[in-house]
Amino acid sequence: MFPNRTAHGRFPSVHPLVIALAALLPLTAAAQDAPATKDPVALDTLQVTAQRRVENAKDVPVSISAIQGEKLDVLGSAGDDIRFLSARVPSLNIESSYGRAFPRFYIRGLGNTDFDLNASQPVSLVYDDVVQESPLLKGFPLFDLAGVEVLRGPQGTLFGRNTPAGVVKFDSARPSQDADGYVKVAYGSYNTWNTQGAYGGPLTDRWSARVSALYQRRDDWVTNTRANAPAQGFEGYDEAAARLQFLYEGDDLEALFNVHKRKLNGTARLFRANILKPGTNQLVENFDRDEVSTDGQNFSELETWGASARLKWDLGRVTLHSITGYETAESLNHGDIDGGYGASFLGAGNYGPGNIPFASESADGLPHHRQWTQEFRIESNEWGRFDWQAGLFYFDEDVTIDSFNYDSLAPGNPQNGHAVQSQRNKAWAAFVSGDFDVTERFKLRGGVRYTQDKKDFSASVLQAVPFGTPVSGPYLAKTDVNDVSWDLSGVYQITDNLNAYARVAKGFRAPSIQGRLAFGGVSQADSEKVISYEAGIKADLFDRRARLGFNVFRYNVDGQQLIAVGGSNNTATLLNADKTLGQGVELDFEAYLTDHVLLTLGSSYNDTEIKDRDLAVAICGGGCTITDPTTVIDGATYALVNGNSLPQAPKWIHNLTLRAGFPINDASELYVYTDWAYRSEVNFFLYESPEFRSRSSLEGGLRLGYNWDYGQYDVAVYGRNLTDQVRVVGAIDFNNLTGFLNEPRTFGVEFTAKF
Known about the structure:
Helix content: under 10%
Strand content: over 45%
Number of strands: 43
Distance between the termini: 17 Å
Shape: globular
Radius of gyration: 26 Å
């Protein structure tokens, strides 16, 4: 009777969420007393496209979570960027040292903390069937979506680029012959506006279209206490995005065309010097997150656009797919990464001055970028006990990166260093996958993919940095590798409502090259390869009033690509670890506790360990406490990181949502919606130090709303980060205890109209 009864969720196993759940039990009881609907409420079948075709999630032998409908809307209500998905499904973490522009994804602890603009990630992001390889493409705003799927474990057989950790998949709402749309307007703390809308419908009996748009803005809410500094306010943004789609539906041909664009203006990540107590990960006692003292420039500019054509021909026994994608980005991100050198030495700032040994202000720009992808895929149409799909994939990316250095102490912050790097990456792959019904209850699936990947790289110093490489270059590097990825799985239907599955898969990530010439020169990491094992169950329970998924996994990475950052010279060096081990469990659960109370719970445990006795990395230049064994190489001290966990890899993730509805009549209701996400401690770097180990985090949201006219209209008040928790979520480690923070507490009101 009421909308959004199919939000999908997870199951936590311990403490932080128990308190929140207990506090909400009275709401559950109150909703239980509400008049019952005539027909029993059941969860809709969860349809996913994890295997590149629409299937019931219960039948797919992959650990997968989905976020859609009301849950997706609630989590994004405050205008936050894509990082609001972090910890909202098991084993997913997302962070950024660029703010809204450059999200870094981690699944089961596997990710990449590299901040270079050509950094590759082992988590692939696929938006409307087109891979988004550049890290600057991965932050496209989330609006007018049909849903989000998170696929854990290697997915290289069916997805085109660098998927040894998994895939985060976004699908936009498609045009159709049924006219519909919505408008949403939200206003909140710090003069935050979050507005979006969409409308779609028929153009002819064959053609339909849909246009979607988003606009978000927030005022600067952090004040610079240093007088006459180039920037006086921080953490504001102004962002717009739009998508236009045309769908043709013929007798044997379907064609979906997509054009999309994003423009972001705001402040870059705000680095705060000396905010941690030495020897601990606690904030200094007089810390104030609303103020900072810094002497440098700070801004972030990003513009991206792209287009795709997805064609599908029904040829009778088979269907042919063609997916063509083009993406391009241009950006400049400028930050005062020392956290306020001149400001601190003048004694400004509520938590300064502290010690900042030298000034460091820099910017990274992307003056040129373009990406072409093409996939041809053919699949069988119900061939009985055996079905299959096969295809070819091509990838071509060309990118140029500028790295600038500035003199914060001179009037006007003049440029005093410039390096440039360029990279051309071409890859192609051939793949085949199939499934065979061994019996009515047992199905085998398998696939194989051959990939060839080439990179041509060059880097030069055009203007010498005072503390770095003189004018020189070009420095040249090339890679040319091929690899075979594969997977094999089986699904056994124990009962009509309970499936068990097991899967083994091999994943691959091509070599990486980086040219941070001002900070250590050109470095290169070889290919990494992952073997992953998992087994689990998926079940519909209590006449489909509940859904459960549980799995255990273990993986082994050979030659994992890592980035060692920091040290007294602020180096950034690519390297390979001999081996990395990971293992854990994941749990998804959702249930109608009553006809009007929907609970979702999720939990994961991830244990990661670097296994390389000879792996040594540079340590912080000063201020931190190293707990690893150390060694001296060429007069410099390095940490031995054998046995350490991976950076940004929380052992525990838990999340909870609870929605309680209170019907007024057949067409309207009052409701309460709360959500909570817990993440345990994480290391920021490869070495271990108490200062650079984030404290655990528990953030919650609350929404009180009223909808009427059968859900066509909704008005609500909301709060995000209700407890106003302040956490350091990342750091810079060269010579002072500099960190950056999570999003602040916000409140707001939102109105939605559907038509």
